[in-house]
Design goal:
Layout lengths: L2 E8 L2 E2 L3 E2 L5 H7 L4 E5 L4 H6 L3 H6 L1 H5 L2 E7 L6 H7 L2 E6 L6 H8 L8 E7 L4 E6 L4 E5 L17 E4 L4 E4 L2 E4 H8 L1 H14 L3 H11 L12 H8 L7 H11 L10
Parallel strand pairs: 4-5, 5-6
Antiparallel strand pairs: 1-2, 1-3, 1-4, 7-8, 8-9, 10-11, 11-12
Helix pairs in contact: 7-8
């Protein structure tokens, strides 16, 4: 049985996971000082917990709940799951066959952008939904209809769900879907972040103009010789500006015409 433990050492950072022997897990649960994550690949560890004198254990539960998240990777249904959820801060249950390997889960949880990866998931056939567990241990649900047949008409087989590429690809039989695409569709903050990144990388004249204008603290209506709508359309790439328009923009921005494209 694997019992891997990581404690939060800074606001958004966890220490490297370390292996704890089964017989020592109870001591850890009672004496850890900070926020912690325990990865368990077998729910037999519950025997160790529930073997304690119940009065001693339950008196500690309020303290334990505030600090410890259990990530339980298991095959059969978890006995006493409702009780576990009452005792700990959070309990994440991931079916073994739809989970990443434990070593990859460790790496993702401790990574800078853990929320951009998927460490496990589950198919809910009753509601036709895929539930994904992200690296920051948040969950996201996507309906089956999200996964449309590919261009070569490969259809998803939801009876064969797995996670590949270290949490970046979802597989449904021969069908593959990018985790990025799912997050982009169903996670508004992620979508905003990606749009900002694309805008930052855009080297078109309009994108360069927009970055320079923001840098100078100007609004689209701060160009007295130009209509605000025209500036907006240039920045959006809807029209190509005339030479005279570019010269007016450059004068207000305090740069040469050639310099605009350098931003």
């Amino acid at each position: 049985m694997t019992l891997l433990v990581s404690e939060k050492v800074r606001k958004e950072s966890y220490s490297p996971f370390k292996l704890i022997q089964e017989e020592k897990i109870v001591d850890f649960l009672f004496h850890t000082k900070g926020q912690s994550i325990v990865i368990v690949n077998n729910h037999d560890f519950l025997t160790s917990i529930f073997a304690l004198p119940s009065e001693k254990f339950y008196r500690k539960q309020n303290d334990v709940r505030k600090r410890i998240t259990i990530v339980l990777i298991t095959d059969p249904p978890v006995p006493s799951l409702f009780l576990l959820e009452a005792l700990f801060k959070e309990v994440i249950v991931i079916p073994r066959d739809t989970s990443l390997p434990v070593n990859q889960i460790q790496e993702i949880i401790r990574s800078k952008n853990a929320e951009n990866y998927v460490i496990g998931g589950k198919i809910d056939k009753r509601t036709h939904t895929v539930i994904l567990v992200r690296g920051d241990l948040s969950k996201l649900a996507a309906p089956f209809s999200t996964f449309r047949p590919s261009g070569i008409n490969v259809k998803p087989d939801f009876t064969k769900f797995s996670i590949e590429d270290s949490g970046q690809t979802l597989k449904f039989g021969d069908y593959e879907a990018s985790v990025d695409a799912v997050l982009y569709e169903f996670d508004p903050p992620y979508r905003s972040e990606k749009r900002a990144e694309l805008a930052e990388k855009d080297e078109s004249f309009g994108a360069c103009l927009r970055r320079l204008r923001v840098l100078k603290g100007l609004k689209q209506n701060d160009f007295p010789d130009l209509d605000e709508r025209e500036v907006r359309r240039i920045e959006c790439g809807e029209v190509a500006p005339r030479k005279s328009t570019v010269e007016k923009l450059a004068r207000k921005l305090g740069v040469s015409v050639e310099e605009i494209r350098s931003y």
